[in-house]
Amino acid sequence: MKYVVVCPDGGADWPVSSLGNKTPLEAGNLPNLARLAAEGTVGRTLHVPKDMDNGSDICCMSLLGCDPVRYHTGRAPAGSKNP
Hints:
By secondary structure, the chain is mainly alpha-helical. Helices cover 30% and strands 0% of the residues.
């Protein structure tokens, strides 16, 4: 069995008046994503630990198997350097 995990991080966004008060994800033409959803198994998870912000940094860390309670030091923590 093969697995694909699709995490459209930030895809929901906020409703936009020029899109008829739809989010970009609602307004988008997404035939490939629709096919994956139709032919696969779709689910939702809540993987943000209690008392932590619902931010993409924490969500993605948790989704990939790292414990954000233990390893999250903040968004762009002091001392980090860009390559």
